[in-house]
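Quick one - first record:
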Amino acid sequence: MATNIPDVPYYVFDIDGTLTRYVDVDPAAFLHGNFLFPIVRDLMVERGADPDEAAAAILRETETNVYWDYCDLVSAFGLPAPEAYRRFRAWHAAHIAPWEDAVALARELRGAGKRLFVVSNNPVTGCLLKLQAAGLADNTGSDVFARILGTNVLRGCKGAPGVWRRAFDRLGVDPALVCTVGDNPVEDRDLPRACGAGACYLFDRGRIERGIDRPPR
């Protein structure tokens, strides 16, 4: 077992800044602060939409469906799913890299028979894309993480009131038997502890990467 990590039956992992990091991202190329929205816009334009109108339509959709996932956008705009996901995966392959220490820890814990989950500030599809880039998932799911709870499932980011309580309720486990694993002292330690988490394990990354599919600030 990794040095100093509590020995409990359940571990809840963060993704951004814990399992993955951004590489060579250009925030100026993003749309509405998101790195995959330009792909959605471009697919709409290729099918005849005006670029500005497409961008506005994406914003309207995400403001109406606040807890959106990428599959929702693909469906809402009638986009070809195989091509959309091919481009999504290509972006992640180029710009998302694993933190090898946390990836190794997740594999070690799983190999020791522990139950692992994800609670993230990404929608579920965004979680899967990042986990794929880290070698911890494929197109259909993960054999490392038993459940993946994203913003569209939990109806908010981890810093929002009630999200950690909903996460523990959905997982159906005793929070006292959970260790949260992350990099953010508030979202990955203080808030889950306030909801009964028995332990936490933080990686010191030197900066905190947070937000819904946004680059480090």
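second record:
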Amino acid sequence: MRFIPRFIGLFIGVLALAGCTRSDGERPPPPAPLGGPTMSAAGAPDGPTHRYSPFAIRLDGHGAFDVVTFKDVSRPLPDPALQTDELMAEAFAIALRATHPRVLTEVVHEPELLDPGNHVFCDRRHLYVDFWRSGPDPARWGYSLWSGCGEDDRFAWQEVDGPAAYDLAEQIERVVDDIARRLGVADARACHQRRC
């Protein structure tokens, strides 16, 4: 008879959790690219679907953003050594210097950014870069740019070929050059939303 109170407590706990929904403002994932997150029959992701980068870029002088953070939404998740994350941040900082010469950039390493709990905020002056490698050729890359956490805050989505003959750094350089150009277009239009 001692198991009955435990069972009732467990049952109440499950009911309480079943009624909970995320209201913390975390932005929805981008549309799944080829090779992107797979969904189970119930609609829940099969295992982890993304990995946050501990590398960020501080911006000084940009009209819309003060910080850039990155999230790898590739499936399966690659690069446990975080080489891609560091290359992505460093290369994007350099690309921004070319397309935004008046903006100062500083790449920072903040290990606490690896914790998903540190990404449930929606700063107004925060550029979120989601990126992935997709398709049968691992040299195909994609990205989406977000100005916030809502569905309408995604203002760019693109896939870019990174020829297999290129090494990782050259592939990333090709992707971030495209990201910097797309950001420049959004800046010129003063539009960092899906519709404007």
